[in-house]
Amino acid sequence: MPIPNNYKAPLKLSAKDRAYNQIQAWIIDGTLMPGEKILDTELSNALDISRTPIREALQLLGVQGFVEMRPGKETVVTQVREDELEDILPPLAALQSVAGELAVEFVDEKLIYELKVINHDFESHVDKKDFYGALKKK
Fold it and tell me: Where are the beta strands (DSSP E) in the chain?
């Protein structure tokens, strides 16, 4: 039986990974708003996943700064404070500048076309207020 050389088995995600991906998507697209309390029982029911992988996913999201966990009390979606943005944006701009300088030697017409397509796609998602779609990798 011939098997194609380029065959890749479908990616199977664990319950924790499925929970992580969905909760992160809901935070990015605004379904879960900054400051909103997250109830693991509601997520468990909505995602049809037991509470243990939900909690594991929330812990990972907590380490990454998407949620704030207050043990014994609550878990809430992280709110970004304006003073934090003032701390984050200047180094981010510097890194993007350096990345641009390093990338310029690899730029050709094909890449410029591909970047224009990506930028157009990003812009159309932002215009529709589909922020998760704008940030999602294709």
Answer: 37-38, 67-70, 74-77
pLDDT tens column, 22-78: 999 888 878 898 999 999 999 999 999 999 999 999 999 999 999 999 888 999 999
* Alpha carbons 75 and 37: distance in angstroms, whole number: 6
Which domains occur in the chain, in start order? 15-77 (1.10.10.10), 82-135 (no CATH)
In this prediction the pTM is 0.61
Measured from the Cβ of residue 32, the count of other Cβ atoms closer than 10 Å reads 20
Distance CA 94, CA 31 (A): 31
Distances (CA, A) of 117 to 34, 42, 47, 82: 31, 39, 34, 32
Distance (Å, whole) CA 110 – CA 4: 29
